[in-house]
Specification:
Distance between the termini: 43 Å
Organism: Rhodovibrio salinarum
CATH topology: Jelly Rolls
Number of strands: 10
Number of domains: 1
Protein name: Dimethlysulfonioproprionate lyase DddL
Radius of gyration: 16 Å
Pfam family, one: DMSP_lyase
Number of helices: 5
GO molecular function: dimethylpropiothetin dethiomethylase activity
CATH class: Mainly Beta
Keywords: Lyase
CATH superfamily: Jelly Rolls
CATH architecture: Sandwich
Order of helices and strands: HHHHEEEEEEEEEEH
Helix content: 25-40%
Shape: globular
Largest sheet: 7 strands, mixed
Structural class: alpha+beta
């Protein structure tokens, strides 16, 4: 079993996540500034721990037919080097839905994959880093995460959370634990989001993902 330091692309990817949460403005928000700092601290701990890289079974979902286009768009955006590393590793990703009950239309329009976390491939207990892929025109229903603080960083596509604004690639959105949120995606391009979760290890191990009513 290889360890992180023996797999350069996985190590480069973690460094890209670290850089993403270390550059740019927090918009004057102390909560976002604190979250970004904690994400960087956990990534530093993870790199220093040099965890094993697990060979999870790669798996696609219907929405991954849009992944190539998402990478094409991300290649011209502010996170283009991160997108290039993700593209090299994409053959190892395990895409999943995460919910026990997924609305049938959503099964063709959404999936996520875990990069670092309890389910790997990079083993971590105190943070989850991953990707969410949404097809054009998707509405991701309202949901929340108990005891988990979450942020999304856009790599490709235009999207909105809770109908508050339109976010372009490079934008970061922060959700406090338990904060309900709903995502909508523009109708001309897929949306690829990098996300970070922080929370108690037992909650990250079993986040109990459910949709609101």
């Amino acid at each position: 079993m290889d360890i992180l330091s023996e797999q350069p692309d996985w190590l480069y990817l973690l460094r890209e996540y670290h850089a993403t949460f270390g550059t740019g403005s927090s918009g004057g928000s102390n909560a976002i500034r604190s979250h970004r700092r904690r994400v960087r601290e956990e990534i530093n701990r993870l790199v220093q721990a040099d965890p094993p890289i697990l060979g999870r079974q790669a798996e696609e979902k219907p929405v991954t037919a849009h992944l190539g286009r998402a990478f094409d768009l991300a290649a011209t955006g502010p996170l283009n080097t991160m997108a290039a590393t993700l593209r090299r590793l994409s053959g190892y990703f395990t895409w999943e839905w995460g919910y026990e009950r997924v609305p049938r239309p959503l099964t063709k329009r959404y999936a996520y994959c875990e990069i670092a976390g309890p389910k790997g491939p990079v083993q971590a207990e105190r943070i989850i880093l991953g990707l969410v892929l949404l097809a054009p025109g998707t509405t991701y229903p309202q949901h929340s995460h108990k005891q988990i603080e979450e942020s999304y960083v856009s790599l490709a596509g235009a999207w909105s959370e809770n109908d508050a604004a339109v976010y372009a690639p490079g934008s970061l959105i922060f959700n406090q634990p338990g904060q309900a949120h709903r995502i909508t995606v523009g109708d001309r391009a897929p949306c690829l989001l990098a996300y970070a979760w922080l929370g108690p290890p037992e909650r990250l191990q079993a986040p109990g993902m459910t949709f609101g009513r």
